[in-house]
Amino acid sequence: MENLGYLFAAFTVVWVVLFGYILSLLRRQRQLQRDLDSLKERSSARQGKG
Questions:
Q1: What is the pLDDT of residues 18-43, one digit of tens each?
Q2: How far is CA 18 from CA 3, 10, 12, 30, 41, in A?
Q3: Three-state SS letters, the chain
Q4: CA 35 → CA 2, 10, 25, 30, 40, distances in Å?
Q5: In whole angstroms, what separates CA 23 from the centre of its chain?
Q6: CA distances from 11 to 8, 19, 20, 28, 43 (A)
Q7: Positive or negative CA dihedral for 27, 17, 14, 9?
């Protein structure tokens, strides 16, 4: 029972790291979606010209 503080600290660190990783993945996914939308616009613009 005396090491309960360390256990709590370890769980807190794990959750903070996990939360940060998920936020990082969400940011990357958002950027990839923007890039994909941009490529789709370029492709449709080129097909419209031809």
A1: 999 999 999 999 999 999 999 999 99
A2: 23, 12, 10, 18, 35
A3: CCCHHHHHHHHHHHHHHHHHHHHHHHHHHHHHHHHHHHHHHHHHHHHHHC
A4: 52, 38, 15, 9, 9
A5: 5
A6: 5, 12, 14, 26, 47
A7: negative
Tokens of 7: 């256990």
Tokens at residue 5, please?
């503080």
Q: What letter represents residue 1's amino acid?
A: M
Question: Is the model's pLDDT at 5 over the cut of 80?
Answer: yes
